[in-house]
# Entry
Amino acid sequence: MLCTNAPSRTSPTSEEGRAVATRTGKATCCYCGVGCVLTVKAAHNRVIDLTADPDAEPTFGMMCPKGALLTKAGVGSDGPGAGRLLHPMLREHRGAPLRRASWGEAVAFIARRLRDYRDRFGPRAIAYYGSGQLDTEASYVFNKLFKGGLRSNNTDTNSRLCMSSAVAGYVAAFGSDGPPTCYDDIDHADTFFILGANMAANHPVLFNRVRRRRAMDDGVRIIVIDPRRSKTAEYADVHVPVAPGGDVALLQLLSKRLIDAGRVNHDFVHRHTDHFDRYHHLLSSLDEAELLARCGVSAETVDACVDVVGRDARLLSFYCMGANQSSRGTDKNTAIINLHLQLGELCKPGAGPFSLTGQPNAMGGREVGYLCHQLPGYRFVANAAHREEVEQAWGLPPGAIDAEPGLPAVAMFEAAARGEIKAIWVACTNPAVSMPDANTAQEGLRRAELVIVQDCFSTTETTAFADVLLPAAQWGEKSGTMTNSERLVTRSTALLDAPGEAMPDWWIAAAVGRALGFHGFDYASHEEVWDEYRKLTRGTLCDQSGMTNERLDQGPLRWPCPDETHPGTRRRYADRRFPTPTGRARFVASHALPPAEATDADHPLQLTTGRVAYQWHTRTKTGLVPELVRQEPEPFIEIHPDDAAARSLADGQRVRIASRRGVAEAKLRFTLGIRPGLLFMPFHWGDLFEPHSNANDVTSPACDPVSKQPELKFAAVRIDAIGEPRIMGAGTP
Ligand SMILES: Nc1nc2c(c(=O)[nH]1)N[C@H]1C(S)=C(S)[C@@H](COP(=O)(O)OP(=O)(O)OC[C@H]3O[C@@H](n4cnc5c(=O)[nH]c(N)nc54)[C@H](O)[C@@H]3O)O[C@H]1N2
Ligand SMILES: Nc1nc2c(c(=O)[nH]1)N[C@H]1C(S)=C(S)[C@@H](COP(=O)(O)OP(=O)(O)OC[C@H]3O[C@@H](n4cnc5c(=O)[nH]c(N)nc54)[C@H](O)[C@@H]3O)O[C@H]1N2
Ligand code: SF4
Ligand SMILES: [Mo]
# Structure
């Protein structure tokens, strides 16, 4: 068994059957949205070999150190020693210790308490906060449980902190979420326009492909727009160290200069777009010198950028959190797309605006509709016809689904902190560390009367708040489906038995649905969940109805894939028709606005936050891997030496940064690769790993008005020394 990609099921405690001597199969890497498909060989419930198939999509034999070292992240038989959560735990009352419970008891307890809160306080008093790291099956069942069963649209996920501006940008411009592009476009592109994405660190295998393309063709150019000289910027032909939040001004300046130079694809604009005039009018009204001042870069740098983007060459943009995590994130996204529309650089191989997803199934979660305003298949809560379609599919009476969107992530935790959310179920995410203004998020978890946390590890900053702990199977231990950055849907097979009583996430949600007496939660397998979901996408913009279980077991497919013989779709909009009422893409004209908060005498510096190559988010997994920890052992704050000198701060010295909300401490790291006036701190270190070093105690909860994505990339701070300055010698990190 399990030597093919088609598992069979046995009992609930062992979804995929008990240990056999050797198992071989595919499992998509559970870290980034590149979605490398790994071939896993396991024996005695341990991984004995991990390779990437050189002939297989999406990455043709490549993986990065995080993926290669997944075997050390507490999987299978190594789980118990690594701190895995092995049994359900619960407590009847706050203050009581958690005690071990059976699955039956835990599920019944949750069902009783959720029903009670919903009945007493209404469906908006309960909430679900999920993750782009859950597989599609799990997110689908959770969505059905909350929006369909419990009738609460308060279901949001960490994708709100990650991809919601990209969703809003694509919908505004094209009438549909989802990228038009695919990885193969890299091999055809001439100009890579990389904005707010440190691909070399965070999408490394994809960036290797960009570098390979660059190495193979002298004409290829890379532009990187990032206030820091990131790892990615080191490979740039033109690095634009834009002022934080200055992207819309920069993109407008580029567009304006290109229009003035006659670089408009009039045929494309005329035939396939709307609102160019409005956009042109806005640009004409803007003053170049003012735009330049807002970008905060030299005129020469902009000239160099205009020269490269203005070439008659295929333009492929990659963008990620530097674009999305902004109170102007939607505008940044549409500004990038405007540039492509103006140049006609889309709807052909090697060109298009390619928003990168961060988590392995952030794309799949969007398709499943796991944000509070969405329903499965790119449907919307606010759309009556969409609600009706989903109600029918779920066997619900008309009007069952609430017409009003629920609370997006930041508002959800703020409501909890005000005592308005009585019960919250957190699955596969660690909001006590990763939410902006983490103190408010923690207050929300403290104030809620029932906190259910579903994780594969027992001790995280969020499990500390739990009244119920539910042990989840993790990577390698469960079968399921994910969609990567290029709309490629891959199927993973369980190759290891989960330790203890850990169960697949979808199974847990379904068990609670059954305990609540809801119809349609008696799935016998992950395949049954998938089958129901794929059929619900039929005829939608992200049609996956042709992706049967059997086909996915044979290999991945890209949507749209509308029937069972359809080969899948590499590039969308190849016919240049867009799913808008006119069939044309839309220019979006918006003014360049500054970040939500401003520096002042008390908080004179800007803080931006992000990632390092060798750690994953809150480190529950990568923190277990010595090879990765050695690379980046402790938190740090990057500063320009001029800013440090002005404050008599030394390299390696411990400092405290303070915003209007809170403080965080870490060692100072000097670098010339950051804009003066700007600090950078990674958000990987929560209190468990390094007390007082959570960047999110400082970050801002201000959100984009359209996407409701928080501005994790900008806070006004001051910096102070802690103790005596200490000059570090050579070898300082
Ligand atoms: N190693 C590793 N890889 C990961 C992850 C991880 O934790 N570790 N997480 C995954 C996830 S969920 C995500 S979302 C992605 C994120 O991937 P990225 O978006 O690449 O990651 P970040 O480091 O958050 O931010 C990228 C860059 O944005 C820049 N930036 C900050 N402010 C601005 C601005 O105003 N304008 C511009 N143009 N740039 C700005 C930062 O300097 C930073 O270099 O990575 C995924 N891959
Ligand atoms: N300051 C700042 N904050 C940020 C960001 C930033 O750039 N700057 N980026 C934001 C972004 S883009 C993101 S995506 C978030 C990420 O933030 P989080 O989602 O909070 O980060 P993770 O550490 O990935 O949390 C995943 C949790 O799920 C658990 N887990 C792993 N596998 C499984 C599984 O299969 N099932 C279950 N049930 N649990 C599992 C892990 O142990 C861990 O506790 O952080 C956001 N916060
Ligand atoms: S590039 Fe991303 S998906 Fe591929 S192995 Fe590395 S972390 Fe995993
Ligand atoms: Mo993310």
User: Anything to note?
Assistant: The chain has 23 helices and 28 strands. Residues 32, 162, 195-198, 201-202, 225-228, 230, 242, 244-245, 247, 320-322, 358-359, 608, 610-611, 613, 615-617, 713 surround MGD (ligand 1) (CB under 6 Å).
